């Protein structure tokens, strides 16, 4: 165990909610009689198994530096009581979170100040809880806060059904009899009876504005994460009364160890009144491919918007000069090399060389750059489409092309064109990018009319047409002299987690496989996470997980697109004779106006089926 300013203790406890429901919690505290602030992480990920390893590394570290660190399982999850929230109670997690912070603030070992910590969905929830209880919550650290399930009006295919399957599986997991006792089975059956697939509610939810900060907030993400735009939006909304500091780096989804010292500085300043210099940090620190940049304020005055016309600085090869319109009509498997929508650091997550994708797209290339080009912010593509292109899907990719022809993805964006021409030309907002394009490389804008399996295809395969002479790409060009270099981040020395034995499958599946059935003109992609396998926990729990996600589409038939995820979880306690298996599946196909989803759960105890249910949903593509 590394040496920290405080010795720490750990205990498990139950936290009562106003309605009598008790939530399962784990508390790490500094060994002191003085009241201390609390850092709360409130999540649906089970603290006694799925997040136990990460919790045992990070929360004792916070406790060793003077904060009580609390990890609580959400209602209806893990070893907590109650039922998972449903569509009829969408605000229940926020209400529970506000009640939790009030309860914690009243503990004799708490100084009345609470800081929230969360990643992904829990990171977005932390912002909402702080907005509900700003007098008690004094600071938030949010990593990769979840965003919308629609992009530019298009319906997200990647990640949607996989997350829906995972959410069903999480809600269908039973409480652990080692921690709950004999009541586990009654609690489990009640949860199973209350299950609802979340997919329709996600897609029906209206588009929400970028999250705002109600209390001082530190927000972090990787440039490749879908939350990068939300993090930049938080930076833009920083005020003297509610300061926000942000970091965007070369990380996958999650809170990297390198930023834990920054989180501690933030909490020490706002929860312990220690002058750590946290508020003197720049509004945005970001990795630009070759250096760490510090920009204050954000948006930075050192970023200028430079237009690249599609008939000038960028130009499509082979476009006839007398032809006003450039037609974009892509095969339906365009997008197979998109990489993962949410990158978790696995080798197959990142998009590979984009030359195959470029060949399925219409490309506009620049001349080789005479000097390095720093991009910092969100590019925007203004298109002048053919009036007959209304309703078509536009997918835009910005790549850098090396002298040897290698095409590397920088960023991308999508838009469903308005059904009727509007007064102004439509604008495709690309995801934020922080990168340095070397001299001698070319910029490439690639346009396609489909992007499967990230997005559900447009029913009309004819694509769209644009007028390059009235279309242009606006790039956020960063002046290196206008910002200072920021110091790199360093990982702290964390405690060693409890030993966890992982048994990998004897015949491990590849993470990502694509098959082209030439006779059927069909493309199939199959994904299997590298983290699958059997884990034996120190407390005797044996946990095995297996997930396979598959996509298929016919090259010339957009409504042939189908997606499916199968997830199997087995939990065993051999010493107790406890053996549970949960199978979940989500299948989706589409027609011109709807997504047709089928979800299934089967739960087994010692090989005997105790619950089985299937849901059929017809979900409008345009939302509720």
Characterization of this structure:
The chain has 624 residues and is of the alpha+beta class. The protein contains 10 helices and 35 strands. An 11-stranded mixed beta sheet has the order 1-2-4-3-5-6-9-10-11-12-26, with helices on both faces. Strands 27, 28, 29, 30, 31, 32, 33, 34 and 35 form a 9-stranded antiparallel beta sheet that branches. A 5-stranded antiparallel beta sheet has the order 14-16-23-19-20. Strand 31 and strand 32 form a beta hairpin. Helix 2 crosses helix 3. The longest helix has 14 residues, at 92-105. The termini are far apart.
Strand-helix topology:
Blueprint: E1 8-16, E2 22-30, E3 36-43, H1 52-64, E4 68-73, H2 92-105, E5 110-119, H3 121-132, E6 137-143, E7 150-151, E8 154-155, H4 160-172, H5 177-180, H6 184-193, H7 199-204, E9 217-222, H8 228-236, E10 244-249, H9 260-272, E11 284-287, E12 292-295, E13 303-309, E14 315-316, E15 326-328, H10 355-359, E16 362-365, E17 373-377, E18 380-382, E19 393-401, E20 407-416, E21 427-429, E22 433-437, E23 442-448, E24 464-466, E25 472-478, E26 484-485, E27 501-503, E28 512-517, E29 522-527, E30 533-536, E31 542-554, E32 557-573, E33 578-590, E34 594-605, E35 608-620
Parallel strand pairs: 3-4, 3-5, 5-6, 6-9, 9-10, 10-11
Antiparallel strand pairs: 1-2, 2-4, 7-8, 11-12, 12-26, 13-25, 14-16, 15-24, 16-23, 17-22, 18-21, 18-25, 19-20, 19-23, 27-30, 28-29, 29-31, 30-31, 31-32, 32-33, 33-34, 34-35
Helix pairs in contact: 2-3
């Amino acid at each position: 165990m590394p040496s920290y300013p405080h010795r720490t203790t750990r205990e498990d406890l139950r936290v009562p909610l106003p309605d009598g429901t008790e939530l399962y919690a784990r508390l790490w505290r500094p060994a002191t009689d003085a009241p201390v602030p609390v850092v709360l992480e409130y999540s649906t990920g089970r603290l006694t198994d799925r997040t136990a390893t990460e919790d045992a590394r990070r929360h004792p570290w916070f406790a060793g530096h003077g904060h009580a660190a609390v990890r609580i399982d959400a209602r209806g999850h893990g070893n907590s009581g109650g039922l998972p929230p449903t569509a009829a109670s969408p605000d229940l997690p926020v209400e529970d979170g506000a009640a939790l912070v009030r309860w914690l603030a009243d503990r004799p070992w708490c100084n009345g100040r609470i800081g929230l910590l969360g990643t992904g969905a829990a990171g977005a929830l932390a912002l909402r809880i702080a907005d509900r209880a700003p007098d008690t919550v004094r600071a938030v650290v949010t990593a990769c806060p979840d965003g919308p399930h629609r992009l530019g009006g298009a319906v997200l295919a990647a990640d949607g059904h996989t997350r829906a399957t995972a959410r069903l599986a999480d809600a269908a997991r039973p409480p652990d009899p080692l921690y709950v006792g004999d009541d586990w089975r009654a609690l489990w059956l009640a949860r199973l009876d209350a299950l609802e697939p979340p997919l329709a509610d996600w897609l029906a939810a209206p588009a929400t504005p970028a999250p705002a900060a109600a209390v001082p907030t530190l927000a972090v993400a990787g440039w490749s994460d879908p939350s990068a735009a939300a993090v930049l939006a938080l930076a833009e909304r920083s005020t003297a009364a509610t300061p926000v500091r942000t970091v965007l780096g070369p990380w996958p989804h999650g809170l990297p160890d390198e930023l834990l010292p920054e989180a501690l500085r933030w909490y020490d300043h706002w929860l312990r009144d220690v002058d750590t210099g946290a508020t003197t940090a720049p509004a945005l620190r970001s990795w630009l491919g070759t250096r760490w940049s510090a920009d204050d304020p954000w948006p930075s005055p050192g970023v200028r918007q430079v237009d690249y016309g599609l008939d000038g600085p960028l130009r499509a090869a082979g476009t006839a000069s007398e032809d006003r319109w450039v037609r974009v009509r892509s095969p339906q498997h365009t997008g197979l090399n998109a990489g993962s929508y949410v990158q978790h650091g696995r080798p197959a997550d990142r998009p590979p060389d984009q030359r195959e994708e470029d060949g399925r797209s219409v490309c506009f290339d620049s001349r080789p750059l005479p000097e390095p080009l720093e991009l910092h912010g969100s590019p925007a593509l203004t298109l002048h489409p053919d009036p007959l292109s209304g309703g078509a899907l536009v997918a835009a990719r910005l790549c850098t092309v090396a002298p040897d022809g290698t095409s590397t993805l920088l960023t991308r964006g999508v838009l469903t064109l308005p059904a009727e021409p509007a007064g102004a030309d439509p604008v495709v907002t690309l995801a934020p990018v922080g990168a340095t394009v070397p001299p001698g490389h070319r910029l490439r804008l690639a346009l396609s009319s489909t992007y499967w399996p990230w997005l559900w295809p447009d029913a009309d395969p004819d694509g769209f047409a644009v007028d390059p002479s009235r279309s242009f790409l606006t790039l956020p060009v960063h002046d290196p002299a206008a910002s200072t270099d920021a110091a790199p981040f360093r990982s702290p020395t964390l405690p060693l987690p409890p030993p966890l034995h992982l048994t990998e499958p004897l015949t491990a599946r590849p993470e990502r496989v694509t098959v082209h059935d030439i006779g059927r003109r069909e493309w199939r992609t199959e994904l299997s996470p590298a983290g699958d396998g059997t884990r034996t926990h120190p407390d005797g729990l044996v946990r095995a997980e297996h997930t396979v996600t598959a996509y298929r589409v016919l090259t010339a038939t957009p409504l042939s697109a189908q997606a499916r995820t199968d997830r199997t979880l087995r939990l065993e306690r051999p010493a107790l004779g406890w053996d549970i298996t949960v199978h979940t599946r989500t299948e989706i196909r589409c027609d011109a106006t709807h997504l047709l989803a089928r979800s299934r759960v089967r739960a087994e105890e010692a090989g005997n089926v105790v619950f089985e249910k299937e849901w059929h949903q017809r979900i409008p593509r345009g939302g509720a």
